[in-house]
Specification:
heterodimer; A: four-stranded antiparallel beta sheet; 18% strand; B: MetI-like fold; two-stranded antiparallel sheet; 16 helices; 2 strands; 1% strand; globular
């Protein structure tokens, strides 16, 4: 009996040995980080974006790897009025939604108006609202507070209603409140995906009329139908999202089915544990996996028989991060600034107001150490807080790097020499697990403490909720902040980092009227050459003023099964990688050889 | 006995209410910004943090928040989990069968293996078998689950390609997603049979081998140790000597007389073990990619996903209470001297 059982077991095992790789028309990707929402008007993260960009489409999109060249998708052509405030798009005919409904101008109008009506606080709606209706980019409920007057609401609705209009079934017009050179690229972000209005309304989404618009203002769209259902035109339609994994299937009614996508089924799996993803790749169960750091690539992936690492020095992503010097630290109950005074036991709230302190910190910062320790040599220093592929990035601006003599010189100049005499104590915090922030803090600590025994920097790890609260309340004296592009326009970075009203700059109390003037001018003109010139000036001014210290950008990589390629890859590469696409490339371009 | 069960069940709402009050109270020590952390995972997403705090009433006081929550619960709404991207109840409904299926398959091998080892060790006290079992138990017990799990994964999955991760083959999961396979119970090994598809059950069973083996090695040690020591006590007692003296075979003495009396502490531990398994065994679920409760609960707690945290706490309260009740009933069945007063 026992022998018999063993035999059966052995047979069963041998029978299952024939583990195949994923099928020839199935693509399995394993990543971490779950989709937040499949409602384009709610989703504002890359995991969601990577799905949305395949099941929905926008009017125009980026071409191949480029962020400055575009191609029409649901539109066929467009024009901009002379005053730069009216955009007219001709729409593609014979486009079917996954429901079978035909796309018309009505759907475009509904989609963009819905974005403006709902515009919940944690969505991307704000930057569309800023272009089309104003109101500080805030939805009506939050803008007017608890007791809005009917007149105010009517005016708000009218602004929405007027912002998008159908000229005929296949022509749509957008009316901007002022010239905005980035509006066209904003329309390429997934939030402005075109929805099947009929299908959405039938299933309980906003009616598209004035009747119930205010009920939808600021609403959390995760309660709604589109959170889990797809109303798009994309080459793939959603089969199911169970809150974790996503399964999608090739859409037979796709308008561009002539270029038939090779993959029939797409499976995006959330596998939180990296070791599991790596073993799945090895076993042939995954076509692409996310690997978090370069060291793992070298020790575990390279040399794997059925996998490949694709990388390029050009893959710098569409993001930038920098060390921020907080010029108005919140002093109340803040242990990070010690005594709160320049007495050696703390720092004053406006410690970083003195440009000499900022410069001294900048010269104490070892960019090479960051590049070598954190990124194993594969990173590029940034001259300004802007991705190098963006318009206006000026590679000629000098970079701060470790120079202990200069650091000492500026520390001695700071506060008329007083700082060098009394010394200071401060805390640089980072959220646990964030190795970039930790490394930056430790490098600053080591170099600055070496200059003067009276200088003391404590490095402290905090769980994310506490860190976020400290950040929100302005308690962090110096911190690393990063921004990922919402749309491919330099203003999306420059304003945030350098303008006194920009999200990050405001947070750390940086204000320079000269800087503001340059940035405002650059966002009010459309001529690319002129804008580039202005942004270069911004870069030089930022070098002199050091409001922030840009961090090096690591070069990117992708880990794929050996037989995975994409259409439209640049010469000599297996796949293309567009930094504005959350998933680097589109599913419809995947080819298995 | 019925009165006993009813009385215990009536205590349940009070227990759950106490749990909810306790957790709400604990949350009061956190600022609205901290409670909003689950809505903003980067500073970029925190751009409109004030609006987020307002939208979710995170700045309201204890009483307002608690009564709002309680009213919703009475309507059957436990709130929305940012971690699972759907309402808490839907998540529990979806994930409980996953963890339950895993628990069912892990529980019996762990229990039986533990009992067998414990019996062998006690009978062969201080001899080779005893030493071997004890070494095995110490190794198993001190081996971190995730280390063993990753090792299993590397050997039996990545290298030998014998077993898989997840719950079933991708093609089967696609069929479930499309609805060509019906998810009657949410437990794939059972749904396979109900759909008349043995390949489904087989695929799911094969994927249970590594998690079950890992858990058995790690957790059976506890059962073994408890049984061994309690059985050693019993083996030294008078009635066992009497049984031996009256000439009963050694096997009958050990199994019928000694073990049956020694098993009570094992039942206690096994009951709690099963309850905790139902909550999801985090490391097993994470490493073998099984989307059960543990995979949801742990990140939810770290991210302060409040509706999820309280939902999980209530579920835990429920499961532990029921498990305790079941254990108490089992005492009476195993040992008739115990009565339900």
């Amino acid at each position: 009996m026992k022998k018999h059982l063993l035999k059966i077991l052995a047979l069963g095992l041998v029978g299952s040995m024939a583990f195949a790789a994923t099928g020839p028309d199935t693509y399995v990707q394993m990543t971490f980080g779950e989709v937040d929402s499949l409602d384009p008007a709610q989703a504002y993260d890359t995991a969601s974006g990577a799905i949305l960009e395949n099941i929905y489409e926008t009017l125009y999109t980026y071409k191949g790897e480029s962020i400055t060249e575009y191609q029409p998708v649901l539109a066929t052509d467009y024009s901009i009025s002379d005053d730069g405030k009216t955009y007219t798009f001709k729409l593609r005919r014979d486009v079917l939604f996954h429901s079978g409904n035909r796309m018309t101008c009505r759907d475009v109008e509904y989609s963009i108006e819905r974005l403006l009506v709902t515009n919940p606080g944690d969505s991307a709606g704000w930057f569309y609202a800023e272009s089309l209706i104003g109101y500080d980019g805030v939805n009506a409920k939050d803008y007017f507070g608890d007791n809005p007057s009917q007149a105010d609401l009517d005016k708000y609705w009218e602004a929405i209603d007027n912002s998008v209009q159908c000229v005929d079934d296949y022509t749509v017009q957008f009316h901007l409140i002022k010239k905005d050179p980035s509006f066209f690229v904003k329309l390429m972000y997934t939030a402005s995906s075109i929805l099947d209005s009929k299908y959405a309304i039938e299933n309980g989404e906003w009616s598209g009329t004035k009747a119930d618009w205010y009920d939808w203002a600021g609403k959390d769209l995760r309660d709604g139908f589109l959170h889990t259902h797809d109303a798009g035109t994309g080459a793939y339609k959603l089969v199911k999202w169970d809150g974790k994994d996503v399964i999608a299937e090739r859409f037979i009614g796709y308008w561009d089915y002539a270029n038939k996508p090779q993959m029939k089924t797409i499976i995006i799996k959330v596998v939180d544990e990296e070791a599991t993803r790596i073993q799945a790749l090895k076993a042939g169960d995954a076509d692409r996996i996310t690997v978090n750091n370069r060291a793992t690539l070298d020790t575990q992936i390279r040399g794997m028989a059925n996998a490949k690492v694709i990388e390029s020095d050009k893959w710098l992503g569409a993001a930038a991060s920098a060390v921020f010097f907080n010029q108005k630290i919140a002093a109340a109950d803040n242990p990070m600034i010690g005594s709160g005074q320049l007495d050696g036991n703390g720092i004053p709230a406006d410690f970083f107001k003195d440009v000499n302190v900022r410069k001294a910190f900048a010269y104490s910062f070892d960019q090479d150490a960051i590049i070598n320790d954190l990124y194993l040599g594969k990173a590029v220093p940034l001259t300004m807080a802007l991705p190098p592929s963006f318009l206006g990035y000026d590679p000629n601006i000098p970079i701060y790097n470790l120079d202990m003599d200069k650091a000492e010189e500026y520390f001695k100049k700071a506060y008329g020499g007083q700082l060098w005499e009394t010394g200071f104590t401060m805390t640089i915090a980072y959220n646990s697990g964030n190795t970039t922030r930790q490394t930056v803090a430790e490098i600053l600590k080591a170099n600055i403490e070496a200059l003067n025994p009276k200088f003391k920097i404590n490095v402290k790890a905090m769980p994310w909720p506490q860190f976020l609260a400290a950040y929100k309340n302005g308690q962090l004296p110096a911190l690393v902040l990063g921004w990922g592009a919402d749309y491919a326009d330099p203003d999306n970075f420059i304003y945030v980092f350098y303008h006194s009203n920009g999200y990050f700059a405001k947070k750390v109390g940086y204000a320079n009227p000269e800087m503001d003037k340059l940035i405002e001018e650059a966002r009010s003109i459309t001529d690319p050459a002129k804008r580039a010139e202005l942004y270069s000036k911004v870069g030089y001014l930022a070098h002199d003023d050091v409001p922030v210290l840009p961090l090096p950008r690591p070069t990117g990589w992708m880990v794929l099964a050996k037989n995975v390629y994409t259409k439209g890859a640049p010469e000599g590469m297996d796949v293309y990688n567009n930094p504005m696409r959350s998933g680097s490339f589109l599913w419809k371009d995947i080819v298995k050889k | 006995m019925t009165t006993f069960i009813v009385r215990r069940l009536l205590q349940l709402p009070i227990v759950l209410l106490a749990i909810s009050l306790l957790i709400f109270g604990m949350m009061q020590f956190l600022s609205p910004e901290q409670r909003a952390a689950t809505y903003a995972k980067t500073e970029q997403q925190a751009k409109n943090l004030d609006l987020i705090i307002r939208q979710y009433n995170l700045d309201k006081g204890f009483v307002v928040q608690y009564t709002t929550w309680l009213k919703a619960v009475l309507r059957g709404d436990l709130g929305y989990s940012k971690q699972s991207h759907e309402p808490v109840l839907d998540t529990i409904r979806k994930k409980l069968p996953v963890s339950a299926e895993l628990a069912l398959y892990m529980f019996f091998p762990t229990l039986l293996f533990g009992v067998w080892m414990g019996t062998m060790a006690a009978i062969h006290r201080d001899r080779f078998v005893d030493q071997a079992v004890r070494v095995f138990a110490i190794v198993g017990w001190s081996l971190p689950t995730f280390v063993l799990a990753i090792w299993m994964l590397a050997v039996f999955y990545g290298y030998l390609k014998l077993f898989g991760i997840g719950r079933a083959d991708d093609s089967i999961m696609v069929e479930f997603a499309k609805g060509t396979l019906k998810a009657y119970t949410g437990m794939i090994t059972i749904d396979g049979i109900l759909n008349g598809r043995w390949d489904v059950t087989y695929s799911a069973l094969k994927r249970l081998v590594m998690p079950v083996a890992t858990y058995t090695i790690v957790a059976s040690a506890q059962i073994m140790r408890v049984l061994r020591s309690s059985m050693l006590d019993v083996l030294n007692s008078d009635y066992v000597r009497t049984a031996r003296a009256k000439g009963l075979p050694e096997r009958a003495v050990n199994l019928k007389h000694a073990r049956r009396n020694a098993i009570i502490p094992v039942v206690t531990i096994a009951g709690l073990m099963f309850a905790f398994m139902l909550e999801g065994v985090f490391f097993i679920e994470i490493i073998f990619n099984i989307p059960g409760l543990g995979q949801w609960a742990v990140p939810a707690a770290i991210q302060l996903d409040f509706p999820a945290v309280i939902g999980i706490a209530l579920l835990t309260g429920l499961v532990v209470s029921v498990a305790n009740l079941a254990v108490d009933i089992l005492y009476g069945i195993i040992d008739p001297r115990i009565s339900f007063q």
